Amino acid sequence: MTKLSDSELSNRKLAAGLTGIFLGAFGVHKFVLGYTRPGVIMLVGSVVGGVVTCGVASFALGVIGLIEGIIYLTKTPEEFQEMYIDAQREWF
Which of 24, 55, 70, 86 registers the highest number of CB atoms within 10 A of its CB? Predict the structure, then answer.
């Protein structure tokens, strides 16, 4: 269990939420939270899959990133800490 200060938790939550909304297709929000494997999956899926499917895969991953960003921002700091920092929940 990692104990972050309130300002660190707030900054991480805000950074993950905003990067999820604006750069979600590339998995940047996953890297912000320290989830390397899901971040690489989203990055490769968006770039390679986007080329192969003429952007459909990138669009789908962008929608997933948007949803995750909104979820991060609507969680209370305690819920965010419990789900994404302590429990290491990687998806949604």
Answer: 24
The Cα 92–Cα 82 span in angstroms is 13
Three-state secondary-structure class, residue 22: helix
pLDDT at 1: 60
Q: Could you give the C-alpha distances from 84 to 47, 55, 56, in angstroms and in order?
A: 25, 29, 28
Which parts of the chain have pLDDT scores under 50? none
Q: Please tell me the pTM assigned to this model.
A: 0.88
Q: Which of 61, 88, 65, 85 is nearest to 11 (CA)?
A: 85
Is 17 in contact with 69 (CB distance < 8 Å)?
A: yes
In contact, 65 and 20? CB cutoff 8 Å: yes
The whole-angstrom distance between residue 46's C-alpha and the CA centroid of its chain comes to 14
The residue to which tokens 């972050």 are assigned: 4
pLDDT computed for residue 91 by the predictor: 84
